[in-house]
Amino acid sequence: xxxxxxxxxxxxxxxxxxxxxxxxxxxxxxxxxxxxxxxxxxxxxxxxxxxxxxxxxxxxxxxxxxxxxxxxxxxxxxxxxxxxxxxxxxxxxxxxxxxxxxxxxxxxxxxxxxxxxxxxxxxxxxxxxxxxxxxxxxxxxxxxxxxxxxxxxxxxxxxxxxxxxxxxxxxxxxxxxxxxxxxxxxxxxxxxxxxxxxxxxxxxxxxxxxxxxxxxxxxxxxxxxxxxx
Length: 229
Ligand code: ADP
Ligand code: ADP
What we know:
Elements: E1 4-11, E2 20-27, E3 32-36, H1 43-50, E4 58-63, E5 66-67, H2 73-79, E6 80-83, H3 94-99, H4 107-116, H5 120-125, H6 143-157, E7 161-165, H7 173-187, E8 191-195, E9 207-212, E10 215-220, H8 222-228
Parallel strand pairs: 3-8, 3-9, 6-7, 7-8
Antiparallel strand pairs: 1-2, 1-4, 4-5, 9-10
This protein binds adenosine-5'-diphosphate (2 copies).
């Protein structure tokens, strides 16, 4: 299944100061949870630990009931998809970048992912589909456009768990709306852990965790949190 369970997780980058100081959460398959809280509180670190970019210092993280330390790296990477805020596009065509999600996908499947990720306007901008996304003269994609291509890539990969570092800081509201729509489409039927920079951007989370000083300061629905604060 695609559950995520953290049990009394502690973690330190330098082996001395714990930046995660005893975090537990139970996320059921298909749930969407949001991590909010002040910068430096530990949201990104928690997301990285779930993907096992680092190992916990103590405590445990289970994905689908298995400790992430016991899941082969390849299998974990197939199960968990991490969509970065700075979407890490590589030099190459739009289709090449999307196909990184699943290299054996057909062009039709890649195009269908691009369509679902609201990228048709980008494709129309580059109709022959062979333009370099970054690093080439005369071709420029905005942050929001790059983010949508990264979402298309994750869509093609179709992992059952999604870790989203939500990028909401686009200057252009049209882009922001498209990114939000693409994310909503991507999240359908998946277990989602979303890092949100503002509570106001969290629309449909089943549970919101306020991460502060490496701990869960509060948890509840948006209604619960708004009523308390
Ligand atoms: P948030 O995502 O809530 O802004 P982070 O998880 O990025 O918080 O940061 C939590 C703490 O860990 C902060 O004190 C931050 O400075 C520290 N930190 C984050 N990444 C690293 C790193 N790669 N190496 C050392 N310290 C880090
Ligand atoms: P990072 O995770 O790399 O620190 P952020 O998304 O926090 O990136 O920052 C991107 C932009 O959004 C920055 O210009 C930052 O000032 C702005 N920003 C981040 N969080 C908030 C917030 N809570 N309210 C308003 N603006 C924010």
